Amino acid sequence: MKAKHALLCALVLNSTHSMADSLKVMAYNIMQLNVQDWDQENRAERLPSVLASMSDSPDVILISEAFNSDAEQALAELSALYPYQTPNVGLDCSGSGWDGLTGNCSNSPFVIRGGVVILSKYPIVTQKAHVFENSLNGSWDYLSNKGFAYVEIEKDSQRYHLIGTHLQATHDGDTAQEHRVRMGQLSEIQSFISAENIPASEPVIIGGDMNVEWSKQDEVADMLATSRAELNFETPEVGSFPAKYNWFTKANAYYFDYSLDYNDTLDYVFWHRDHKQPTNAPSMAVRYPKAEQNWYWSYLRGN
């Protein structure tokens, strides 16, 4: 496996610190694309065993970029550990499998699924999906039913509300326009939360591939303000999207002519400030699943 997009955030959300009162949430971009060769099949085959072997196994996983049949098979193999799984956002615009589907879901044969799925060890009481109205025309994302999945789960008589998402990506190296779209998408999430009338006594957790670079603290501030969210994250030695350890990031560095020392984080798990707050200071940390073998790609040598 590669280091890209594997983040774990443990949130203790009750007034005590027992395991019954905590929830561990991981946002994971598994990069199972329908196009190009990024070793999708081999990585998908390893995914179930890697997640099952984690010593701090998360209670809930917010999956993004589950675009292909290899991803479907991998998630199905995780059903023993994560028996409660949502459908894939935007795969079916009829709303089948959801308690509600809103937004701009397209049935066009040229538009692919959104790729977001939520896995849970605990019963999902409610599951809803939304496909974003905000999307950048002319970008690859415009041809995807990107959006978010919402679940209400119950663990030991405590209700938790979680949203997993994947925001607009930056494709041309200029983030200004894409950043505005991302903030529009986060506003859609905020509007959804408000409309759900979630009790203030219950926690709301939001996570996923936000495509907001941690190094751009002004954009991070916008993200948190728009989401009405709190985040506790210290800059790691290696981020979730480092060129040194991720061949996809390295390929981008060559293509867009930026530094091979690029090392940033694009993925987050945070909690909503208008709902139940954690009693401790939960922090987000990056996890680095790796394959046992080293893979070398001649087309990334930069020659």
Automatic annotation (TrEMBL):
Signal peptide region: 1-20
Transmembrane spans: none
Domain Endonuclease/exonuclease/phosphatase residue range list: 34-275
Molecular function GO labels: sphingomyelin phosphodiesterase activity
Gene3D superfamilies cross-referenced by the UniProt entry: Endonuclease/exonuclease/phosphatase
A cellular component annotation (GO) from this entry: extracellular region
InterPro entries associated with the record: Endo/exonu/phosph_ase_sf, Endo/exonuclease/phosphatase, Sph/SMPD2-like, Sphingomyelinase/PLipase_C
CDD domains: nSMase (cd09078)
This protein's UniProt keywords: Hydrolase, Signal
Domain of life (superkingdom): Bacteria
Xref: Pfam families: Exo_endo_phos (PF03372)
Record has Signal as a keyword: yes
Protein known as: Phospholipase C
Lineage, opening ranks: Bacteria, Pseudomonadati, Pseudomonadota, Gammaproteobacteria, Alteromonadales
Gene transcribed to yield this protein: plcC
